[in-house]
Amino acid sequence: MVGRRNPRPRGALETEVVACLATADGPLTPAQVQAGLGGDLAYTTVLTTLARLHDKQVVTREPHGRAHAYRLVGDGVAAQAGLTAREMRKLLDGGVDRASVLAQFVGRLDEDSERLLRELLDRRAAGSEQDGTSS
To answer: Which CATH class, in words, describes the domain spanning 12-72?
Structure first.
């Protein structure tokens, strides 16, 4: 069995598929996505990636002949943000000491990112207080 010489980093193919769909004027079939990515991937690889994105609710699919056509649920930025957040959550849930990981993450934020994170947490807390839920 011949392996890829330069394997993609984890999640890179999903990112490429999302970018391809984001530039489309409408829904794309797996063959159209395959062509949009340069055609060097197997059709089944593209199909599997689209199915996983559908399972993650990043794309919707609609009948298109004997196949399906896929489109992003939101825009490309929102879709990519959702995939990145999912990956971050998966890494945090991976069994490493969450407090240490989060402390390292926060400790390496620049001032603008720290301010943004603080604003997002404050908004979330305010929303929880308004609807009577807690974090």
So the answer is: mainly alpha
